[in-house]
């Protein structure tokens, strides 16, 4: 006969799993207040505050045109277009997880603008002024990239496009290559992207949250899929680049403490397109351009043909 204590123990275990799953979902996919950068409260911002602030100030001093599009699933997405004279070449800049473009691209805005690019800076879904309740690690966001590309082609019908992203933004632009991008997308710059939503979520659970994958990863996956329609396991940057025809420039720090450098290597190895990699010694997450500006700039010159 089953004892009351055994029943109570099972009930408590189930309640604990439910509570832990809810916490995991909240941390992983539910919209929260934007933090301003993946390391916004850490060493990154303390070390490079001067450069980040300079980039933010440079952007703030320029006028922009606010842009809105409707996503494939009905969300109103927000972006800013910074026109560069009569240029018809635009770079679409996708920021990272719970971050902002001002933070992630602070050291790149002026570089691209001075080389003649218009800048399109979207707020990713569930960030900033864009609508959305859930973050999908590049899965649904990659379809938003296609929508933004089509939108820019309406503004500059004879123009050229480049895509760039940092961290989740890098995975977003890489996975967008499965979406049937317009033929005028000439190149992609992917900085410290992760291999897939599933692998980065598992990594965070194991190493950052220090919880066992069983049962918490699996219960979080099931509940997330039921509520959002997003399945961690169905999307992969590695798979996307195997069929990619658009040239890709990969950047990744060898000392990346968030997205392991090995993930960057794996995506690079899988890419079937024309490709180049800049692996930066001593660079942490998103720091490649800051640590080796000369090497990254040289690679960008060659890649962009400028």
Explain what you see:
The chain is of the alpha/beta class and 306 residues long. The chain has twelve helices and eight strands. Strands 1-2-4-3-5-6-7-8 form an eight-stranded mixed beta sheet, sandwiched between helices. Strand 7, helix 10 (261-270) and strand 8 (275-280) form a beta-alpha-beta unit. Helix 1 (4-28) crosses helix 8. The longest helix has 25 residues, at 4-28.
Describe this structure in a few short sentences:
The protein is of the alpha/beta class. The chain has twelve helices and eight strands.
Q: Mean pLDDT, nearest integer? A: 90
Count the helices. How many? 12
Shape: globular
Distance between the termini: 78 Å
Q: What share of residues is helical?
A: 40-55%
Biggest beta sheet summary: 8 strands, mixed
| CA-based gyration radius | 20 Å
Q: In percent, how much strand structure appears in the residues? A: 15-25%
Helix-strand category? alpha/beta
Give the SSE string. Answer: HHEEEHHEHEHEHHHEHEHH
User: What is the number of beta strands?
Assistant: 8
Low-confidence stretches: 37-41
Strand order of the largest sheet: 1-2-4-3-5-6-7-8
